């Protein structure tokens, strides 16, 4: 399969983490590690899409950027059929940990997670789910 090149911009600490990941896991280079992580992520999202699953979406964001919370709330209203609860924990002066407890099809939860975690300004986001049927 032909390879295509593209550029990636990362903060210094993220690049340092990537380099550490490359070294710890024996990858030949950054590209190989990034390719592995992307393939792993895609495979995890495709698993058992029609099964009922339960889980959490964990999001870390800068609470001073009010538009992030507003956008999350708008998205959560659209997906209220799969949201069981939503909690905010203020970690320090700047950061807020937002936890959404969810249950529904893996496809629907992945869709919600993707919409929430790709909001501009989100520092970290992750969906963790387990079969519930």
From TrEMBL:
Please give the family membership noted in the entry. Belongs to the transcriptional regulatory CopG/NikR family.
A Pfam family cross-referenced in the UniProt record is: NikR_C
What cofactor does this protein call for? Answer: Ni(2+)
The protein's matches in InterPro entries, at most eight in alphabetical order, are given as: Acetolactate_synth/TF_NikR_C (IPR027271), ACT-like_dom_sf (IPR045865), Arc_rbn_hlx_hlx (IPR013321), CopG (IPR002145), CopG/NikR_regulator (IPR050192), Ni_resp_reg_NikR (IPR022988), Ribbon_hlx_hlx (IPR010985), TF_NikR_Ni-bd_C (IPR014864)
User: Boundaries of each Ribbon-helix-helix protein CopG domain copy?
Assistant: 4-43
Taxonomically, the superkingdom here is: Bacteria
Its organism's taxonomic lineage begins at: Bacteria, Pseudomonadati, Bacteroidota, Bacteroidia, Bacteroidales
Which species is this record about?
Parabacteroides chinchillae
What HAMAP family does its record include?
A: NikR (MF_00476)
Q: What does this protein do?
A: Transcriptional regulator.
Supply the name of the protein. Answer: Putative nickel-responsive regulator
SUPFAM superfamilies given for it?
ACT-like (SSF55021), Ribbon-helix-helix (SSF47598)
| GO biological process terms on file | response to nickel cation
Keywords for the protein's UniProt record, in alphabetical order: DNA-binding, Metal-binding, Nickel, Transcription, Transcription regulation
Q: Which CDD domains match?
A: RHH_NikR_HicB-like
